[in-house]
Design goal:
The chain has about 375 residues and is of the alpha/beta class. It folds into two domains: about 1-140 and about 285-360, Rossmann fold; about 145-270, Response regulator (Rossmann fold). Helices cover about 45% and strands about 15% of the residues.
Length: about 375
């Protein structure tokens, strides 16, 4: 008799545990935690796990605990595809954050459209959200926003001839497409169009060719470590031609890699790189300060703009679930499109049925590197 009672108790415990697990909200993530793009994926993973713990400690979302399932694609597109399929087919998640890089995002987007599960990418290529796929969103500022900010700055300096140097991966080629479109459209002459591989360690040849075209400025488009090599090679060649970087290097890691060669470089960046310089009344000020304080306390390391992309994806998912009172994939998707004037670390988001990025060029500020630190340009 006593054994029977214990069996009943055990069964009730298992049933309650299964029920609790079924009621959790499953958020998947596929990120480049290791490999060449780990400077993107590691802070993104850290951020998601930190936010999960914070939310769960306060009762979850609408009373439901949050489960975050993270897979590392190791910066490899094939492993990204396998991870995405596992999240959809085995883990049955309600929404996925990531991938970290544009090429991986474009490789898996079709699976989410077919499964009708929303994907919120942490990558910036315009092709991710244009044309709009009902199930695909992203959080970084778009390449078009960055190019627009750079060209506005170039116009203010009376530059007329521009050269571009882009990395030959998904991010670089997406940026190159926008640069080649907008440079002539804004009245500039494109005098050189050079490229480099993601693993190249010397861009002297490309910079020498560019020097021969006498541009007023050079725009380098890529993510670490390539742009840092470009900056160092420029210094070694004695080139004084102004050098713009893309937002793909908007983290302290770039300054560390480029060293003294980073001094004076200009780029568009989110406000996260210079939180203390954001005006007190700005709508992003509070969320920026909270993220910086929480992340540095949790991990004892500085924040990066890239971790901010994951922060905003998680925050937008939470807002969509609260707004709709549901964590069903279709409801999350529908309610993401209803989010307006939502302050994140990367900008103020207003999604809609025809805008799955939700930002504009105002999400960027122009910054320069002065004495090894970020300085907002007036």
């Amino acid at each position: 008799m006593k054994a029977a009672r214990w069996i009943v108790v055990l069964l009730l415990y298992l049933l309650c545990s299964a029920s609790a697990l079924a009621e959790s909200i499953k958020i998947g993530a596929v990120l480049s935690v290791t490999g060449p793009a780990s400077f993107l994926g590691e802070p993104e993973k850290n951020t998601l796990l930190m936010l999960r713990d914070q939310v769960n400690s306060k009762g979850g979302i609408n009373g439901q605990q949050v489960e975050v399932i993270v897979y590392d694609d190791e910066s490899d597109v094939n492993k990204c595809v396998m991870a995405a399929k596992k999240l959809l087919d085995q883990d049955r998640v309600s929404v996925v954050v990531g991938p970290s890089i544009s090429g991986n995002t474009l490789a898996i987007a079709k699976f989410f459209s077919s499964a009708q599960v929303p994907l919120i990418s942490c990558a910036a290529a315009e092709k991710i959200v244009r044309p709009v796929d009902p199930w695909i969103f992203n959080t970084p500022q778009l390449d078009r926003h960055a190019v627009t900010k750079i060209l506005l700055d170039a116009q203010s300096r009376k530059y007329s001839k521009l050269a571009i140097l882009t990395v030959s991966d998904g991010y670089g080629q997406a940026g190159r497409g926008v640069l080649k479109e907008l440079i002539p459209a804004q009245g500039f002459a494109l005098v050189a169009d050079e490229s480099f591989g993601p693993k190249d360690t010397d861009m002297t040849a490309q910079l020498t060719k560019i020097k021969g075209t006498s541009p007023d400025a050079i725009i380098c488009w890529g993510t670490n470590p390539g742009p840092a090599v470009v900056a160092r090679n420029r210094t070694q060649l004695g080139l004084t031609t102004p050098l713009y970087m893309s937002h793909g290097v908007a983290s302290n890691k770039f300054i560390e890699l480029a060293g003294e060669a980073a001094e004076g470089l200009i780029l568009p960046a989110g406000r996260l790189v210079a939180v203390e310089q954001v005006p007190a009344g700005h709508p992003q000020k509070r969320v920026l300060e909270e993220y910086v304080a929480n992340y540095t306390k949790t991990y004892n390391t500085p924040v990066s703009s890239f971790g901010g992309y994951a922060h905003d994806a998680f925050a937008l998912v939470r807002e969509a679930i609260i707004k709709g009172g549901s964590a069903k994939p279709s409801d999350i998707r529908n309610n993401l499109e209803k989010i307006s004037s939502f302050a994140g670390t990367s900008g103020v988001y207003s999604y809609s049925s025809d805008n799955h990025n939700g930002l504009d060029e105002n999400a960027f500020i122009m910054v320069t590197i002065e004495k090894g630190a970020w300085k907002v340009m007036q």
